[in-house]
Design goal:
Radius of gyration: 17 Å
CATH class: Alpha Beta
Strand order of the largest sheet: 1-2-5-6-9-10-11-12
CATH architecture: Alpha-Beta Barrel
Distance between the termini: 38 Å
CATH topology: TIM Barrel
Helix content: 25-40%
Order of helices and strands: EHEEEHEEEEHEHEHEHEHH
C-alpha cells in the first residue's frame, strides 16, 4: 500500500498524571519538548490540551497560545490540533481558543458515556463550535465515540455546517462507549466511505487497545493516533519512555506494511489544510 499514513501524537490529555508515568508532559515547555521529539520521530499532528497543573485541565487561551507558538518554533510545519473536549471547560468556554486559528480542532458531534460521567455535547454547542471553526478556518477532526456520530458528521457536511471532505476519528476502547472491536471497526470504515465519500479517517485505541487499533489502521489504509494521552504503557510490563517511543512504534508498523509516513507538508495536502505559518 503506497498511501501515506499521517501520525497524530496526543501529547498529554486531561487524565494521565506524572504518577501514572513520569514521562507525561504537563507544562507548556514539557509539551513543546515532547512534541519536538515526536515530530522528529515521524508525527505530523500534535493533539493539544493544556493544564493549570498536574490535575487541572483548562481551556485558557493564553496557555494554548504559548503552546502553539512553541510548536511553530520547534516543530516547523507540524499540524497543531487543539482539543475542545469537555474535561477542560463548559459551554462556549470549550472553544475560546479557536480564535488563535490552530490548523485543526477536535469536535465531538454527539454525547456519550465516559467511565464515570456523561460527556455532554448538546446540539446547540456542537453547532456553535462548528461555526467557530468555519469562521476561523480551523479544520475539525470529528471524534466519533459512537456510530451515530459518524452519521451526524455526514449530515452536517451535507447541510453545510461542516466543510467536506471530512476527517473522522473512531475513538475505541473508552469504558462505557465504543469498544475496540475489529468487526465494528471494519463496519465504521465501510460506513464512512459509503455515506461520506472522500472522507479521510483515523482511529484511536485507548489504554491497552492502542497498539492493536494502530495496527488495524495501518493495515486498512487509515491514519493513526498514538501518544501518552491515550496510553502510558509501551507494553504490558513497561511504561512508555516518551511520546516519541509510541510514535516510533507506529512508524515500525508502517514499515511492516510498506506504507510511507506522511511528513507535515504531505499531511497538510491530504487533509486540505492551509500552508504552515512560518515562526518568527
Amino acid at each position: 500500500m503506497t498511501k501515506p499514513c499521517i501520525i497524530c501524537v496526543a501529547l498529554t490529555g486531561s487524565v494521565p498524571r506524572k504518577e501514572d508515568n513520569p514521562a507525561v508532559p504537563i507544562t507548556v515547555a514539557e509539551q513543546v519538548e515532547s512534541a519536538h521529539e515526536a515530530f522528529e520521530a515521524g508525527a505530523a499532528i500534535a493533539h493539544c490540551h493544556v493544564r493549570l497543573d498536574d490535575q487541572t485541565p483548562t481551556s485558557d487561551p493564553g496557555r494554548f497560545g504559548r503552546l502553539k507558538e512553541g510548536l511553530a518554533r520547534h516543530c516547523p510545519g507540524m499540524i497543531v490540533q487543539f482539543s475542545t473536549g469537555g474535561r477542560s471547560g463548559v459551554g462556549a468556554e470549550r472553544g475560546g481558543m479557536l480564535s488563535l486559528r490552530p490548523d485543526m480542532a477536535s469536535l465531538a458531534v454527539g454525547s456519550n458515556n465516559f467511565p464515570t460521567r456523561v460527556y455532554e455535547n448538546p446540539p446547540e454547542l456542537v453547532d456553535w463550535l462548528a461555526a467557530e471553526m468555519r469562521r476561523h478556518d480551523v479544520k475539525p477532526e470529528i471524534e466519533a465515540f459512537d456510530l451515530s456520530h459518524i452519521f451526524q458528521a455526514a449530515k452536517m457536511a451535507r447541510d453545510g455546517r461542516l466543510a467536506a471532505p471530512l476527517y473522522v476519528q473512531f475513538v475505541m476502547g473508552v469504558k462505557n462507549a465504543m469498544p475496540a472491536d475489529r468487526p465494528s471497526f471494519d463496519f465504521f470504515v465501510e460506513t464512512l466511505a459509503r455515506i461520506a465519500p472522500g472522507a479521510e479517517w483515523c482511529a484511536a485505541g485507548i489504554g491497552r487497545h492502542q497498539v492493536e487499533v494502530n495496527a488495524w489502521c495501518v493495515a486498512a489504509g487509515g491514519h493513526c493516533r498514538t501518544g501518552l494521552e491515550d496510553n502510558v504503557r509501551l507494553d504490558r510490563d513497561r511504561l512508555a519512555p516518551s511520546n516519541a517511543a509510541l510514535v516510533r512504534r507506529v512508524v515500525d508498523l508502517c514499515a511492516r506494511h510498506e506504507r510511507p509516513v506522511a511528513g507535515p507538508a504531505e499531511a497538510r495536502r491530504i487533509l486540505g489544510l492551509r500552508p504552515a505559518t512560518v515562526a518568527a
